[in-house]
Amino acid sequence: MLLPTDFELHRPTTVAEAAALRAELGDTAALYAGGTELLLAMKLGVLEYEHLIDVKRIPALRGIERRDGELRIGAAVTHRELETLPDLPALAHLERHVANVRVRAAGTLAGNLAFGEPHADPPALLVALGARVALVGASASRELPVEDFLTGPYETELGEDELIEAVIVPVDGAVRAAYRKFQVLERPAVGVAAAGRLDGRVFDGAPVVVAGAVDERPVRIPADALAGAAYDDPDALAALAAAAAEAVEPVDDLSGSEAYKRHLTGVLAQRAVLALRGEG
Question: What are the residue ranges of helices labelled H in 60-162?
Fold first, then answer.
């Protein structure tokens, strides 16, 4: 497949310049860093743009910075660069299993969010960790929780003049996190993330459990049954599995039936919670 050549390529060198281009060109333009989703869609003829704005060379989007108990991941940081992230082992573990090495070497965490692909790994864990996106527009900046930024399949709250500057993830040494998924095709069929505090073997409050890839956007799974319970309490885990199966609205497709995916969501919710003892 060949990429269409009837578009103009822009290579801004600052965030402000990129935002100004977004404002000027409107919906005739698309941003890209790795382009693993966007360029494929253009090759297939699913998307057409008159302008592409390449942001991967903007220095301000390249770094990973620890600041005030949070990790600020620049929008041009690739999945590959996050595979050995010491501050967030669960995210590093997830990143090592995103797609394939070619995608991880080029694709970015911010780009994954901006595309709004529902069958993706990062969103569930980012929601469980309370991550935010920092957005920059032509005249203003703002932050949104990842949970609010993703509004539906291929739909986000990204404004016409905005770009993602960074993904901001809280880092709390007392919070354990894990992500577990099931995948038979190119993308995950179901993925579940869990994050919470353990006092020995017992949960300090209820963990946050989030299902991804199985619904139109990440879905929080009620986990009240685990509050004050041992992480491996069979009754609490059974209640969690039942709540997980009920919380999502999957559809039949090549990855499995609706009933099968509901069951998988429950199983993976249990596995994610059990993994909190070791994390990752």
Answer: 79-82, 89-95, 101-106, 109-115, 122-128, 146-149
